[in-house]
Amino acid sequence: MKHVSILVPRGNSILSSVVGPYKILMATNQFLIQSGMRNDNYFDVHLVGLDHDQSLYEGLFSIHCDSTVQETHKTDLIMIPALRPDKLMEDLEQNEAFVPWIRDQRSRNGAEVASMCMGAFVLAKTGLVDGKQCATHWAAMDVFKKMFPKVHLVSNKIVTEEDGIYTSGGAFSFLNLMVHLVEKYCGRAAAIHISKYFEIEIDRKDQNQFAIFQGQKDHEDEAIKEAQSYIEKNVQDKISVGELAEKYAISNRNFVRRFKKATQNTPLEYIQRVKIEAAKRSLESTGQNINEVMYQVGYMDQKAFRTVFKKYVGLSPVAYRSKYNRQHANLERAML
Length: 336
Prior knowledge:
Helix content is about 50%, strand content about 15%.
């Protein structure tokens, strides 16, 4: 039997990332028994908090924890739910006491640890993912990189696994993490059952298609902010890094260094991401063909456009339009 501790943070944790894992693990227990694979539960699931009772969403919901960290001396798997982004720093401070307990369970008992969405911030504070892969919500990546530069943050993966540490991307991608864990511990048949029962798309690996690039302007370098705005206002133009550096009277090398420090992207990466985000919006909302969209964002070569698009989105332009432009998809179906 595997002892599982689903943490219940103080403050503003996402209720679904507490209840969801609990329901999936309990459903897995039921499947294993009903299918004759086990005679008893495989997962011994507990809600573990810093206090026995926790109020969420300004008192609209409450959770009763069956144990606290002080009462939980040994566990096999710790699950860290998502924190709400609007009060992230406040919630990290409120839940600081989880950090030494997680580290102790890992070092003393060999516990595995899984974080969901922005629960990755709590995990990162333990130091357990320094030098390791980690996923979190795409909207929090810039803040995460600044806070935890030693962590290998991956932007594209929905689920990561390294040395008994698991992380998942944003929001409800914790469901994919749960299917991954069910398969790891209980086998493919159990994972398929859970994916079908809860209608979770199995083997979904990439979260890039969900990301919305918003531009990283939470910094104090005014020249770089001006360069960012220039890029965003001239998305149809072919802009070189050298031209930008000259425009703002900064040496090429220093411009690249300052841009990367301010935005966590090189100037070329930023230009590409701005253009691809504009292309995504056109593919979602207009009837333009792929070439028209490509020209509109300053690309002349189809192969280059497809390559860059897939790099940041995880889908080809055609596949992205088919998935997110309902009117165009309906038109294509009507022509079949």
